[in-house]
Amino acid sequence: MLGLPLIACAVHRLAVVSLVASVDIAAAAARLAGRVVRTPLLFSERLSEALGLVVLLKAENLQYTGSFKARGAQNALLARSERGQLPAGVATFSAGNHAAAAAFAGRRLGLPVVVCMPPGAVEVKVAAVERYGGEVVLTDDLVGTCQALAAERGYTLLHPFDDLDVIAGAGTVGAELAADAGTVDLVLVPVGGGGLISGVAAAVKQASPATRVIGIEPATANAVTHGRRHGALVPLPTPPRSLADGLTAPYVGRHNLDHIDKYVDAVIEVPEHAIERAWWELLDASKLLVEPSAAVGLAALREHAIEVDPGARVALVMSGGNVAPTTLGRLGP
Amino acid sequence: MLGLPLIACAVHRLAVVSLVASVDIAAAAARLAGRVVRTPLLFSERLSEALGLVVLLKAENLQYTGSFKARGAQNALLARSERGQLPAGVATFSAGNHAAAAAFAGRRLGLPVVVCMPPGAVEVKVAAVERYGGEVVLTDDLVGTCQALAAERGYTLLHPFDDLDVIAGAGTVGAELAADAGTVDLVLVPVGGGGLISGVAAAVKQASPATRVIGIEPATANAVTHGRRHGALVPLPTPPRSLADGLTAPYVGRHNLDHIDKYVDAVIEVPEHAIERAWWELLDASKLLVEPSAAVGLAALREHAIEVDPGARVALVMSGGNVAPTTLGRLGP
Lengths: 333, 333
Prior knowledge:
By secondary structure, chain A is an alpha/beta fold. The first copy, chain A, has helices spanning 3-14, 22-32, 45-51, 69-82, 97-109, 123-131, 142-153, 164-181, 195-207, 223-230, 254-263, 272-286, 296-302, 325-328; strands at 41-43, 54-59, 90-93, 113-117, 135-138, 156-158, 186-190, 212-218, 266-270, 313-318. In chain A, the strands form two sheets. In chain A, strands 1-2-10-7-8-9 form a six-stranded mixed beta sheet, with helices on both faces. A four-stranded parallel beta sheet of chain A has the order 5-4-3-6, sandwiched between helices. At the A-B interface, helix 12 and helix 14 of A face helix 12 and helix 14 of B.
């Protein structure tokens, strides 16, 4: 039993580690100029006062498609096109925000997109894909069906987070944040499969090595914590569930774990009750419609799970704003 | 019976009409610099596509205290101070956003503020006043109690909307909008007692006379339509009720009706069902947490209550973002 983690570890260490560099993120930013919203970094007076910090919110809920995913999906298609890998179409899989973002990116580039989604996918998420002209295939076997469709149609298979172009696209969130924030002591990033934090941490740490970057995952959907023990791509033993539905990836990606190991100071877990409470506080204080996933950073601060000096400048990445109306009904102080 | 409206009309015409000029709004902007959030004017891709227009959202929900009222309240206290009318304190009345804004303004200037609120005021609105250090007096007789308190304590009585300094403060919303929007064909403004639209219309029409400014009020809370028939300050026959609770002023102010008569192209009414539907669409499309009052403009467009050319540039003023959690529970597509 003891040998297994060591073997997994050795394999991990021997593998070639590919990391996104500042130049890759700068190239992504150039590609995405005019194709993404340069989202504002908003000072929150209410949260700053409540926490005794300077709280800045990177409002990716205001991004096209309602989440940061519009960056990675578009960068991936554009970068592949530049490399002469322009596909006939794109096959991808997601229960959430990547689904709409891939459809959006495909429509912008005139490429057909098919998105494999689980049969239990939230109706508004399915509707979002269709609004952007994407084809939805409901299937229990997301990856298998997606691979089969890609092979059959000659489409490119796009992983929603374990992809260096997707990571570089997400990195533009961090690059904008670093440019707009001035000095920032701490950046808190919601963590699911690791796509967002990989890019943000790479951007922030290369721009400002002294800034701490901490990832937050729900205790009930802790793919990164699990992956650090058991290896990337090893799924959680039971399907993750959380109010923060955007963070319920079943495993951390390989490239993502590499970036987290290299650039992230810590990944910590927060309980559900803290997420629920922080979500209402965040909405009420910020007046941004953000999804529960965006509230994990505030939840961690409220739980005193992170040591932070009074008056420190803390940026919270608001990952998205796609909330089902039934979920909104659960809100309250 | 027939004679009464004519007499009221004659009195109205004979009265001295005081209007806020561009210089008053510029003076307000100078006073408020650094004291208000210069809120963004956000392009909404989703609404633009859905409506076949260029839709711009003036995000006053991101204003301090969560509504545009922070502008008028601060301008009123600062302007009075400049004129040597610095009060020992402020007495005001409101069931809604002006209450928190007055408390906020008072705290910033080190002045005590007492706010008369109705016994049925929403708990979060009362809590907001107290958060900013304001004193709350619950009373059925808002104006009478407020007048008595002002007299007793030597406080200045501040009307929440029928006040030229308050109107000039609200005008800075219009001035920023006109500066940021470039050419704009139509501005839609939520209407309660008329404070916001008085200022916005004065600013926009003086900057750009060709721009249409239209006010929207709930059909069940139509103080301006009522006031145009029966005179300013004449209360609605029954207490107004609407999902758009920020617009339930019982009458239109005198200064407000003067500004509306001079600067506003039309004030139209929208039914409750249209407000409810537009509210969810607005939240889902904009990812801003706005209160139902902010949705009346979209409701009017959705009801085809306003003629507008395809592709026209239309700005919607998001008046505020203070939503009670129980109200959020009513949301849905």
